[in-house]
Amino acid sequence: MASTPDDLRARIEAYPWPAGRGGIEVVRANRGYTLYSQRTGGPVARLRLTGQGDRVQVLWWRREAWGNPGPFGREVMPLDDALAFIAAEGFFWIQAS
Length: 97
Known about the structure:
Elements: H1 5-14, E1 24-29, E2 32-37, E3 43-49, E4 55-62, E5 65-67, E6 76-78, H2 79-88
Antiparallel strand pairs: 1-2, 2-3, 3-4, 4-5, 4-6
């Protein structure tokens, strides 16, 4: 069963972000969601909806644009895996420091 955008947003907002990260503000934006640091307002990640249930493409902010977070191209994964990936990887939080 496909998840609705409202369901996905609620799951992103409810995710238990690590205390040291300061929390996330979720903004609906063109084909997905942009996650901003509540502490600094800096961009953390972009989750682009794929239309395949709760699978999302994960992007990170670098050099004034959203890009793939790794050297191997697109990162597409279920939402829970994407949120755990963002929470754990320090490079997503560079602009949020």
